[in-house]
Write a structure and sequence with these properties.
single chain; five-stranded mixed beta sheet
Length: 339
């Protein structure tokens, strides 16, 4: 709806210009010929201008010049100029001899030459017209992009308000839970940390390894809540977690896979071992869990690991290693990525 007034106004400007050009032609011809003859000649001349300007600006330039078909464009432009120049002169010659001349005048090739010069000048004007059209088109696109950018900023502000409301609500529940049920308060705190990770860290291209490991720790604490027996968790780090940067959500699929396929809630000996170290500019992650009997056997082709492998390929090409399989009575997943 916003574009229509601009399109209409541009057309109105063109109509005004063509009417002015027509009137100027008529007035200039009336100095030598009667009013009716001036109207006919003015209409013939302006129609040839229209054919050249719109034929070049709307047809030849967009379809051939913009597509780098330069030779074909030049040939077609010359053909257009020649055809219109001949039509302009011959049309005037025919109308004059059949309707206005008391004595027919002979056909002169010099008249076609002067018509060619006029048409060539109009052709140059058509290039200026094309540039003007492109300017208005680019300006319209820029305005549309600015409008979209403003709408995106507004949506971003809306999306920021909603998480803040959620965090404030969780904080209120947390303070109540501290008095009534301290254990519930701890779980709410972990949930709040996970939600804040999704809002603040997940959209980034890279985050600190510390933020990723804190997210994993909160995730494990929430998962432990659903288990009947305690889960043994052993996390070993041999790196400066604050200086190492990794893509967000890259390590969590390895841990999720444990809770999906490597935990039996009826067993008392469930465990998860997580090892993170940096070696020769490589981040090496190893996750171990108990190898369950066949019904609950970890699936190395599960959706989580398949998606992780696809993401690693997009991020690192072939410069990574991801292995998952049985090692004795353990299921082991190992990941190595460059830093």
């Amino acid at each position: 709806m916003l574009n229509m007034p601009r399109t209409v106004s541009l057309r109105q400007i063109q109509w005004i210009i063509w009417i002015l050009v027509f009137l100027i032609h008529v007035l200039s011809i009336m100095a030598f010929d009667p009013f009716g003859q001036a109207l006919v000649y003015g209409a013939l001349n302006v129609s040839t201008y229209v054919m050249i300007i719109y034929g070049n600006a709307l047809l030849l330039l967009p379809r051939f010049y913009e597509k780098k078909q330069m030779v074909l464009y030049v040939l077609l432009a010359l053909l257009l100029i020649c055809l219109v120049a001949f039509s302009r002169y011959y049309g005037s010659f025919y109308v004059y001899n059949h309707f206005f001349a008391e004595k027919p005048t002979p056909f002169r090739w010099s008249g076609i030459g002067s018509s060619l010069i006029t048409c060539f000048l109009v052709y140059l004007t058509s290039i200026l017209f094309y540039i003007t059209l492109r300017f208005f088109q680019l300006k319209r696109k820029q305005e549309q992009l600015e409008k979209q950018h403003a709408e995106a900023e507004l949506n971003l502000l809306k999306s920021q308000v909603q998480p803040h409301f959620l965090f404030n609500t969780l904080n209120n529940i947390y303070f109540v839970a501290q008095r009534e049920s301290p254990a519930t308060a701890v779980l709410l705190e972990k949930l709040s940390l996970i939600l804040r990770y999704f809002v603040d860290e997940a959209p980034k291209e890279k985050i600190s390894l510390s933020a990723e490991l804190n997210f994993i720790s909160s995730y494990i604490e929430l998962e432990k809540m659903r288990m009947r027996y305690p889960l043994a968790v052993n996390i070993q780090e041999e790196t400066d977690r604050e200086r190492v940067a990794v893509p967000p959500m890259l390590l969590i699929p390895l841990v999720e896979n444990v809770f999906k396929h490597g935990i039996d809630k009826l067993r008392k000996d469930n465990f998860i071992n997580l090892s993170v170290l940096v070696h020769q500019h490589q981040l090496e992650v190893r996750v171990e869990n108990l190898l369950l009997p066949v019904p609950g056997k970890p699936d190395t082709t599960g959706t989580g690991l398949r998606n992780l492998r696809s993401r690693l390929t997009l991020l690192y090409g072939t410069d990574y290693t991801l292995q998952a399989g049985e090692v004795g009575n353990l299921f082991v997943a190992q990941l190595s990525i460059p830093l």
